[in-house]
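Checklist before submission:
- one chain only
- standard amino acids only
- sequence pasted in full

Submission:
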Amino acid sequence: MGVSAHVPGHLAEFARSRDLGYPLVGHGELLLGRALGVPEVTADGRTLFARAVVVHDGTGEPGC
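Returned file contents:
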């Protein structure tokens, strides 16, 4: 699954147009990505999630 800082409506069109093959989940307030440990970047004054792979082990601890 992909996690994004964009709102869900925007993500649905993006995923369709790129035929990603996996779902995108978004939260404009960044809560989901932060809870999952996704690294953040700042671009044009806006906080976004970095393109990264985050794998959670059986204890729920993230690792990049």
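Reviewer check: The longest helix spans residues 8-18.
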